[in-house]
Amino acid sequence: MPNVLTTCPSCRHPLEITALHCPHCDIVIQGRFHNSPALSLSEDQLAFLKVFVLSRGNLKEIERILGISYPTVRNKLDQLVEAFQGRPGEETSSPPKVSRNEILQRIAQKELSVQDGLKLLDDLARNAVTEPSFGSLDTEMEDEP
Fold it and tell me: Which candidate, 109, 105, 52, places its Cα nearest to that of 81?
């Protein structure tokens, strides 16, 4: 099942849940409902969370089940912690800065799903356009006496 949309596809601001529908009796409840950080988790993060809970948090067991290294398990767990540290209805904290090559390597090593990798690459490209380039500052500084 696809994830629930949590950000507006047009302006990228957080969406607000304002209606709930029961498909059995066709009742609709309208109001303003808190958004859970769990709704923003990727399929990869949800799968990891399921393994984490079913293994009762045993990281060695998670390594064995998923066939990934301990640092990768810790990285995935850290990403979940970051996702849940946001307040309800607000966007979660931004992921740590990684390079394009790091993302591609993680996809190749199957530490990151293709879908999550593409999202990170998209975020990286979007942030590169809006953030200043520090390379140009270094050049300017070298010219000064």
Answer: 52
Q: How far apart (Å, rounded) are the C-alpha atoms in residues 42 and 33? A: 21
Q: Each residue of 56-66: b (16+ CB within 10 Å) or e?
A: eeeeeebbeeb
Q: Are 111 and 72 in contact (CB under 8 A)?
A: yes
Model confidence, pTM:
0.46
Instruction: Report pLDDT digits (tens) over 2-27.
Output: 566 777 777 878 788 888 889 999 99
Three state DSSP letters for the chain: CCCCCCECCCCCCECCEEEEECCCCCCEEEEEECCCHHHHCCHHHHHHHHHHHHCCCCHHHHHHHHCCCHHHHHHHHHHHHHHHHCCCCCCCCCCCCCCHHHHHHHHHCCCCCHHHHHHHHHHHHHHHHHCCCHHHHHHHHHHCC
- Which amino acid belongs to residue 55? S
Identify the CA nearest to 47 among candidates 108, 115, 97: 115
